[in-house]
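Cont'd.
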Amino acid sequence: MQNFELWKTDVNSQARLGVINTTSGAVHTPVFCPVGSLATVKTLTPDELNDIGCEMILANNYHLYLRPTSQVVHELGGLHNFMNWHKPIITDSGGFQVFSLSHLRTINDEGVNFKSHIDGSNHFFTPEKAIHMQELLGSDIAMAFDHVPPSCADRELATKSLERTTLWAERCLKAHTRKEQQVYGIVQGGMFSDLRRRAAQEITALSFDGFAVGGLSLGEPKERMYGMLEETTPFLPPDKARYLMGVGAPEDIVAGVARGIDVFDCVLPTRVARNGALFTDEGRKNIRRAQYIKMDDSFDPNCDCYTCRNFSAAYLNHLFRSDELLGMRLASIHNVAFLWRLIKNIRLAITRDRFTIFATDFLGRYQVTNEDKRLEQKEQWLKANNRK
Amino acid sequence: MQNFELWKTDVNSQARLGVINTTSGAVHTPVFCPVGSLATVKTLTPDELNDIGCEMILANNYHLYLRPTSQVVHELGGLHNFMNWHKPIITDSGGFQVFSLSHLRTINDEGVNFKSHIDGSNHFFTPEKAIHMQELLGSDIAMAFDHVPPSCADRELATKSLERTTLWAERCLKAHTRKEQQVYGIVQGGMFSDLRRRAAQEITALSFDGFAVGGLSLGEPKERMYGMLEETTPFLPPDKARYLMGVGAPEDIVAGVARGIDVFDCVLPTRVARNGALFTDEGRKNIRRAQYIKMDDSFDPNCDCYTCRNFSAAYLNHLFRSDELLGMRLASIHNVAFLWRLIKNIRLAITRDRFTIFATDFLGRYQVTNEDKRLEQKEQWLKANNRK
């Protein structure tokens, strides 16, 4: 059985239909993976994710290394057993977190020295260690350890991080021992087209099971992200899965699929849910608004999620205005279910060779969050995470 | 159909077995009601309470009057429809909250003037208004509006609040119009035996559907609470349900049943759960403790709740140490399920005329939280609520 089977490519776009075969089962693509950094998709049980239909989640190597530690998860039978989620799990290597969350890092070709964002303790990550820790976690798909430059990186830094990412990619593959675990390589290259192409060529020359596009959605305008994606995916082999890291806004999933991406992950649906922002086909709406105070109907009449089936918009409004934790749960269920329905509709559209029609229709109705506001929120979020 | 049917009284104690018949269904007694002050048992869905087996919950008139307002709940079809819980609901009148949560209250025989603990706005509660608001909520059992003295009240204040509670009780009954809704009267009297007896005689002379013992578990030592209970329940009619308000520690439920109480409610199981304190047959244990870091077994091997069936103690420990909201959920499920199992065991013991044996056995094993620590926690909690 191949790790990835490409079933079909849309006739009018690069949209693809396929399946990733892992030891924990099959993952149909395109797919969105909810994020459970600390072995929990915030506020939700694995049963709730199963009810929605989710096929794969993402957990985080950096976070789990610090708490409860990779070794403890290993001794408890691995991540699946630990969190009672028995479908596929992909783990981020910690590259992004080491650069975005930790403090006082020093980096050289050997690895990254950093202080924990929790207690300030000193740690050293190398490509070998990042792979070993993911083997301890026992995820189905591990990610290579990469050097993630900020979106504002100049050519020099973008080049350096690209070269280091390639160097580390080779070391990751060499260090990897668990053959039942797949490993994906990561393409960096900052915001430079030629560097993206060069990175794609260098990383795809190595024997990874799939390829990820990293370093995007870090604060750059969406159009630039889409442009960088267009400079990258044509250089990725068609017979391997393609993963766009950290991307999960509905409009970006559609744009990503159109550009040949198979796998997405993002904290967005659960993070904004905890602030009361719920997805609809017309865009994100905040359930705290006064218009919902007396709305006895469900928040979204087009939605068949547990939340919309069982509770009124008025009740959700009340829960959020009263700071009740149940509100965060119900909003998280709705947002993950919304993205899952989007994924299913995308799959169906590709099957019927109607993806471009679907995408035009969806993007025509879906009002994207104002770009300035979006970037401001993103910046706040990155700062808040840094302070933690 | 009678509002309350007394099925059996234990031969060796005052423990009783019965059923409360409401328009939303039957509630077997003894019963424990989880508290959903704001129309949500914190962190849990109605489905989860149903799965545990809960037969009745308590919601709060004061909280719902302020948010989202009694009128809004009424317009949305009443409390059952609003929160999607279709089994019986009992509502507290707000008497306790007006005295414990609100600010700058002035009280006279007409009613209570107070400032909202949320926004400082001015409000005036009367017995008539408290009943009308509970009719708007549409609970199955409404409580009379009472004057709750602090546990340290002197004889003068205890007498005054008793007399006012009786005066208000009469006005509550006169104001009540929804005949399908039952109303329970409340016995006050502070920490004075003769006043408790007098209050019981005055309140039971009125045509309430059931009787509650109020003003206990407010910081006084447990032995005093039990003593006051013994001075009260003998003066309550056997053919009406008896409700001990705000009491829900496992040892107090057993002690209350032994003294003839049928109904209990308390925030305790869910409140301590959110701090990581989980009930066991041996007492409360904090899941954050280091001993659980690597415990792959369930937290309580005797427990068949959703949490213990699906997750290890180590995972719960990790969730709490990482401040993950799922931890609060899973701990709340466990604690409510623990109390529900206790209730079922109590019912079975009474059925078999073995209640005193059961109680001796249970209290012999269950290590009660240290009295000083308990009182300190209680004081902190009352203060914290006042600050809100």
